[in-house]
Specification:
heterodimer; A: 70% helix; 0% strand; globular; B: alpha+beta; 5-stranded antiparallel sheet; 6 helices; 24% strand
Chain lengths: 171, 227
């Protein structure tokens, strides 16, 4: 095994899980996410000279996986949930993620979700997140702030609804 | 603490992150499968470039030939004639090249689905009696001897696809080459081949887990199992 292959092997072994989790959280489908992430790692291997110099390799894989998914959906002529802004998904149990949290996450605009995936799930700093998405650090902060506000509202509404007593029959 | 840190430490995002940390994910696929997939992608890109080049050359030839290349004119039939003299059949899914020693080399692109009936018919054009199946594999028990004289397997390399070269003159009378393709998990495709007795064989829908008796087994993605 060449030095490049060996380096890629280390990266693959240590990054498979966090990348898959991030993509699965974004798509809500573990099986599909597994396919997308496998394809993204295959592309990373093909372009390893370039990817190995990337400041956030895992972010490269996750973005590639999400783009692969979007491209598959486009090719199949189906609705594109990755960029949809109002797609309600009842997913959750199949990937083991809190279904309420997952549904709230998936209702976020695509860009906010991308920021969440990179900043929160992959733990990239603001600067690297901004560079990876080719946007300004201030824009990353703005997306994070809006995403947090939306999630706060959505999750508190869900909690309120869950805690509300059953309506009493009248008459 | 920066604004970004404060935001990331918000209760909502923290709940999101905590929720994700409890998720269990499937084991990663074998590294070889990922690399094989990458190899297939490289090949696919290379074929696409060659295809574009040939398409461009075709357009250029048509422009040069001008009115003489109109349907019915001599120039209009030139392209298929050239393909025959090269001794190769090229489709999106596979290539069969006729070699000067009478053997034929088969290369399959795992990214493209192939029509088994067409592949079988194309092999027949080069004098190779074959039974090509997708999702099943036919074999004889006992298998006719002599596969190693009929088929030689070339595993390829990082930038080269795996191929099999078939010598139809070495096939014992009454036999044909059985070639079965299966799509496995993670889009790794596996091909199985063996000599079969035309008058006595059975077919199974189960992907073989090991090389069949007197047969070969390999991954079209470039993973070599064994022969």
């Amino acid at each position: 095994m060449s030095r490049d292959d060996s380096e890629f092997a280390d990266f693959f072994q240590t990054s498979w899980e966090p990348c898959l989790k991030a993509v699965a959280a974004s798509t809500g489908d573990m099986v599909l996410a597994e396919e997308q992430v496998a394809e993204a790692f295959a592309r990373a291997w093909v372009s390893w000279r370039k990817v190995s110099r990337h400041p956030a390799r895992r972010a490269w894989v996750v973005r590639t996986a999400l783009n692969v998914g979007a491209s598959w959906w486009r090719r199949r002529g189906r609705e594109l949930p990755l960029v949809g802004h109002d797609v309600a998904v009842a997913a959750g149990p199949e990937i083991g993620l809190d279904s309420v949290v997952l549904a709230a996450l998936r209702r976020l605009p695509a860009r906010q979700r991308e920021v969440i995936v990179l900043r929160v799930f992959l733990d990239l700093d603001i600067e690297t997140t901004a560079r990876t998405l080719s946007i300004a650090p201030g824009t990353v902060r703005a997306h994070l702030s809006r995403a947090a506000a939306t999630l706060r509202k959505e999750l508190s509404e869900t909690t309120t609804t869950e805690a509300a007593p059953c309506p009493t029959a009248i008459g | 603490m920066s604004d970004g840190d404060r935001l990331t430490n918000s209760a909502e995002l923290h709940r999101l992150n905590s929720s994700l940390s409890g998720v269990t994910v499937p084991e990663p696929p074998p590294l070889d499968a990922i690399m094989a997939r990458g190899q297939a992608r490289r090949r696919h890109r290379r074929f696409s470039v060659v295809g574009l080049f040939l398409a461009g050359a075709g357009i250029a030839a048509a422009l040069v030939l001008g009115p003489t290349a109109a349907p019915g004119a001599p120039g209009a039939r030139a392209a298929p004639a050239v393909a025959h003299t090269l001794g190769a059949i090229r489709t999106a899914a596979y290539t069969i090249v006729l070699n000067s020693d009478g053997t034929a080399t088969l290369t399959i692109d795992p990214n493209e689905a192939f029509d088994p009936t067409k592949l079988q018919s194309d092999l027949d054009r080069y004098g190779i009696p074959a039974r090509v199946t997708v999702g099943s594999f036919c074999s004889s028990d006992p298998a006719p001897a002599g596969l190693s004289q009929v088929v030689s397997y070339h595993p390829g390399g990082e930038a080269e696809p795996a191929t099999i070269t078939i010598d139809p003159t070495a096939m014992p009378a009454g036999t044909e080459l059985s070639f079965g393709e299966f799509e496995l998990r993670m889009r790794v495709e596996m091909a199985t081949y063996a000599l079969i007795d035309k008058g006595s064989y059975t077919c199974s829908n189960d992907p073989p887990t090991s090389s069949p008796d007197q047969g070969g087994l390999y991954s079209l993605g470039g993973l070599i199992r064994r022969q």
